Amino acid sequence: MMAEKDNENKELLDKATAILLSVSDNLSTPRNIRKLIKDTIFNLQNDSSSIGARAANAISMLDELSQDPNIPSFSRVTIWSAVSTLEAIRD
To answer: What is the extent of the structural domain holding 55?
Structure first.
C-alpha cells in the first residue's frame, strides 16, 4: 500500500517536472523566469526532504512566480498545470 502511494507520488513529481521543463526550455519565456523554474526543478529533484515537502515548496515558489506581471500567459497557464499536478502529492 505504501509503495503504491510512493510510486504514484513519484509519477506525479515526474509529470510536474516535465511540465516545468517545457516552460524552462521555451526560449520565449523570459530568462529570469526560466532560471526560477530551473531552481524549482532542482529543488523537486533534491532527495534530502520528503516528496510532500518538496512538492509544497515548489507550489509556493511557482505560486509566487505565476504572480509575476512579466510572465507570458502561456507560461502562466503551464505553471498552473504543474501546480495542479503537485497539489495531488501527499506524504
So the answer is: 2-87
Q: Is the pTM of this model over 0.90?
A: yes
> Which are the contacts of 2, defined by CB distance < 8 A and separation ≥ 6?
none
The number of C-alpha atoms within 13 Å of 20 and in the hemisphere containing its C-beta is 32
Structural domain count, the chain? 1
| Non-local CB neighbours of 6 within 8 Å, separated by 6+ positions | 51
Grid cell digits, residue 40: 524549482
Q: Are 61 and 43 in contact (CB under 8 A)?
A: yes
**CATH number where 39 lies:** 1.20.1440.50
Reported as a single tens digit per residue, the pLDDT across 60-72 is 999 999 999 989 9
